[in-house]
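Loading example: each entry is read as two labelled lines plus one structure line.
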Amino acid sequence: MTIEVRNVCKSFGAYQALDNVSLTVADGELMALLGPSGSGKTTLLRIIAGLDQPDSGEVLIHGQDLSKQAVRDRRVGFVFQHYSLFKNMSVFENVAFGLRVRPRQQRPSDAEIKRRVDELLGLVQLDPFAARYPAQLSGGQRQRVALARALAIEPKVLLLDEPFGALDARVRKELRRWVRKLHKEINVTSVFVTHDQEEALELADRIAIMNLGEIEQVATPSEAYDRPATQFVSEFLGFANRLTCHVENGIARFGDFSLPTEFDNYAGDAVAYVRPHEIGLNRANGHDIARATIDSIVALGPTARVDLAYGEQRLEVLVDRERLTELGLVVGDPCAITITRAHVFRGT
Amino acid sequence: MLKSISRKPKAQKPDIGTFETEVDGDRLLLTLVGRWDVPTVMANQPALQKFAENLAVEAAKHSVIDLSSVTRLDTVGAIAVSVLRERMARFGTAEITGAHEAQEALLDQIAKVDAQPIPRLPIPTARDRIANLGKWAVDIGHETRELVGFFGELCVVLFRLARHPGRIRLTSIVNHMQQVGIDAMPIVGLLAFLIGVVLTFISGDQLQRFGASVFIVNLIGIGVLRELGILITAIIVAGRSGSAFTAEIGTMKINQEVDAMRTIGLDPMEILVIPRVIALIVMLIPLGFFADIVEIAGGALMASISLNVTFTQFVNQFHAAVSLQHLWVGMVKAPFFAFVIAMVGCFHGMAVSGSAESVGQQTTASVVQSIFLVITLDAIFAVVSSQIGW
């Protein structure tokens, strides 16, 4: 089942939460909506789910406009950040609820419901906890119940609103891996909202990066990281050094550096983004293009973060710690730097 | 203040501080003497105030505050000194002399703290008040419109369920009937009984003066059956169950349980609102009847104690004077009151958004509004029934 969002606008009072957003999610795809808080990602998800109505535009799921369907026929699996389990029902009842309240003709028999709920609880690895109440479960377990509940109604699409937001880091990582596996198994078209880029990069087939109610880029994780479409994407997705430079004749000049650009006929101010690992570090030897001074070195596991002062500009560089020992550089040393790659954007 | 203290020498501490001023051309010397602490500042407040206000007249270009004769300086004293210096500094230089080390440190500390006076709350102007009134009216208009919209939605869902009765959730209805009906009986009974007693006592006293004690039966019988019984019940239920509806649904709304229902294909109106509305409509009728009986029983008890109207007399008179019609006039209101209370309670529950604070606000609004509507509705019923001669 595909999801198609067409020119959706939504505002709350004077605040424009979504500004003409269009998005297509392919069948069986796992799409992440990534953005800072207030970027409109949850609003978009709620509109896809039919929980909120767009001011204009439409949402088609498998070619059908959900807003014209009765709530009962929409069948959207939705997982909330704070689980939103029905507190007064056992785990089993929570999962079964969506089936039990179906109109009589569509309702499976009790035996069938039991079989399906047991199967789902097995899938989310919670079979021993069927008789427990939500309050007796841990956060990760509750979120898995919520997932089973969302899957019980055989949803056309699965929507997850910051599903791991309320969990601690270790559980989050575990659950993330597990969701990835689950998605492979059941292969239902899914959209999840997150503000954690690591989560988006790890889980999603494609990422839609949102800012201020607009989608800035839709791309695979590696594409978005390697070829950010806008300044915002370069800044939001991982860290990048921001260098203000000047473009002339297709070359961006920053200090002693000349960076190639794609602008042939543009002359003026520009901003270059350079990832910390795209800056090369060497001992100063007198023939360098550019020279910087080491401000600090922070060891981060196998790599080290080196903060450099290059004139007024601060640069953050990631190098292997082995390489750093090889070079024998310490704080206060001058060093030679090269820029292997940069993304240059017009404007300031 | 100084005067009043000096008149009562006991209250005066032996060494309250004083101050002296000395003007020499454009030089002003302010000498503080004795202890400068809370009592001193309080005692000298009016005088200091006067001094500070008259500074402009004296127009001292060079001011000096001499602390050399101060024996004790606490924070309040230091603030007073600091304020005085600031005032003086407006007309020229102002310095402090004679302060020893500790005092100087304290003064430094005070100077560092930005001792801005607490800003006064803006006094609303007449225009603000009118604007607020307008805003309030518009808000009420909005809310009324939404409530009417909710009423419409409720009717649509009720009709839908009437066509598909299989979708009515009986278990839920029974559960709510227990909560709003059976569980409410003790409190409704107790309050109804007390009101019956009080009403009889107060009005019986008046009737006795005319030797018309036995008419207490008419008064209690008709008054309770037509009006009081059901009205008291409705008000108690509004406070007890209406608010509970708002809080329950509101909490579910905040936990996104309501959204969760919607996503698995359930209409919250069907699941949450309808069972509550039906349960309350069904239960308010017997609950009102129960209240009628207990209230009249309370009246009968009080009548026999304080008015010498025996129980047999009471029953006989009741038969003669109170027709069944009065009971119907009272009872027919019950389902309407129940509908209004349940609807308003659920409406405010569904209107909860965002934070837990909103649950509290909506609950308050729910109770106030449903009691208001119940009494308004009661007045309308009174007018209608008197018009049709019942």
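Chain B has 15 helices and four strands.
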